[in-house]
DNA sequence: CCTATATTGTAAGTATACTGTCAATCTCAA
DNA sequence: TTGAGATTGACAGTATACTTACAATATAGG
């Protein structure tokens, strides 16, 4: 029995591959975000970090990385930049000398409020070319897929766990 | 008339935002690709470049960037790494002294053949958690969205145009 | 022919995103 | 209590991904 011949190597196979489409869509999403938020000098990642710190004041970097599914190393430089721009501040923890607690500054809180309409415009623009029903379908499937694949990523999202150790156990 | 109060700022809003899901899915996709292709020392981007050079031998870097929707600057270092690993070679064009033509080496062609099963396993694994019908729906919608948003990205895909100037016009 | 303009590859600078490693610190169990 | 192991933030190293800028080269118009 002859084995199946290998499929031809074509760009069309690349263009239709999930991995390629995910990369392409991510590029597009970042591009749209940066365009809508041009006035604010804030990247998508920096925005997510600000929201998380706003929601969980006094979080530390390691837990923050779990809450936004971010590598700890990467997050270090993100935090540095946010601090350099005076949007957040770091205070040493009295309980654990290794830890630095993160808080929004007034400037950071104000920025967050102001930028939200631009962020929502960006999010809407990403899906705009689709029909409303298709937008819902796509988001529902993607949310499922990301959730079901959570453990496959190197830095899984740990939204709840992360907070159990924050002195707000419940 | 009082204006609508602003929506509360929550992490759930971030988790459901298209931009966040696209970034997360991209992280997961790269992670799975790297895991399946561990034996080969090739990144997703390097793989796409190899396929494109295989499909269009003698392509130059600028056209390659259009064919895989890649920034020219980024591509420079990708090409360098592929050359350092002896998977491609660059030859000066006799017609245009600015241009360097790209070709797969024997080693690169062999690698490409060998890696394909691993790449296909990776692509399959990304969608595995979904039901087959949902996989199709998701891919169809995503393909549409990427295509319709093509111009929104900084480096739009120009699959066909790019080749018209390659001496294969027609 | 010669000059304004465009293209090509390259480089410098910024920002994710990951792999490791490390010292300081904390925790827990023997 | 002390010592093994874990955690934390920091750092070095690699790889996208983008911006702007630049010199070398090519092209088109006058």
What is the topological layout?
2 copies of one chain form a homodimer.
Chain A: H1 11-16, H2 18-36, H3 44-55, E1 59-60, H4 61-67, H5 72-84, E2 88-92, E3 100-104, H6 106-127, H7 132-148, H8 161-164
Antiparallel strand pairs in A: 1-3, 2-3
Helix pairs in contact in A: 2-6, 4-5
Chain A binds a DNA duplex (30 and 30 nucleotides) through residues 23, 27, 30-31, 34, 43-46, 60-62, 70-74, 76-78, 81, 96-100, 154-155.
Descriptive tags:
homodimer, 170 residues, mainly alpha, Arc Repressor Mutant, subunit A, 3-stranded antiparallel β-sheet, 3 strands, 7% strand, globular, disordered C terminus, DNA-binding
Question: Care to describe what's here?
Answer:
The structure is a homodimer of 170-residue chains. By secondary structure, the first copy, chain A, is mainly alpha-helical. Chain A has one domain (41-164): Winged helix-like DNA-binding domain superfamily/Winged helix DNA-binding domain (Arc Repressor Mutant, subunit A, Orthogonal Bundle). Chain A is 59% helix and 7% strand. Chain A is built from 8 helices and 3 strands; from the N terminus they run H-H-H-E-H-H-E-E-H-H-H. The first copy, chain A, has helices at residues 11-16, 18-36, 44-55, 61-67, 72-84, 106-127, 132-148, 161-164; strands at residues 59-60, 88-92, 100-104. A 3-stranded antiparallel sheet of chain A has the order 1-3-2. In chain A, strand 2 (88-92) and strand 3 (100-104) form a beta hairpin. Chain A is globular and about 70 Å long. Chains A and B meet through helix 1, helix 2, helix 3, helix 6 and helix 7 of A and helix 1, helix 2, helix 3, helix 6 and helix 7 of B. Chain A binds a DNA duplex (30 and 30 nucleotides) through helix 2, helix 3 and helix 5.
């Amino acid at each position: 029995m002859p084995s199946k011949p290998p499929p031809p190597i074509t760009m069309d196979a690349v263009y239709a591959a999930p991995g390629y489409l995910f990369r392409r869509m991510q590029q597009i999403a970042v591009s749209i975000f940066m365009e809508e938020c041009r006035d604010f000098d804030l990247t998508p990642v920096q925005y997510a970090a600000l929201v998380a710190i706003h929601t969980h004041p006094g979080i530390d970097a390691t837990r923050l990385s779990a809450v936004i599914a971010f590598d700890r190393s990467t997050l270090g430089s993100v935090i540095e930049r946010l601090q350099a721009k005076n949007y957040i501040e770091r205070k040493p923890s009295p309980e654990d000398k290794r830890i630095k607690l993160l808080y929004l500054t007034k400037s950071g809180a104000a920025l967050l409020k102001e930028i939200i309409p631009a962020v929502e415009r960006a999010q809407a623009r990403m899906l705009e070319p689709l029909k409303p029903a298709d937008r819902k379908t796509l988001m529902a499937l993607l949310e499922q897929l990301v959730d079901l694949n959570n453990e496959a990523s190197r830095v899984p999202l740990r939204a709840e766990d992360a907070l159990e150790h924050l002195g707000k156990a419940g």
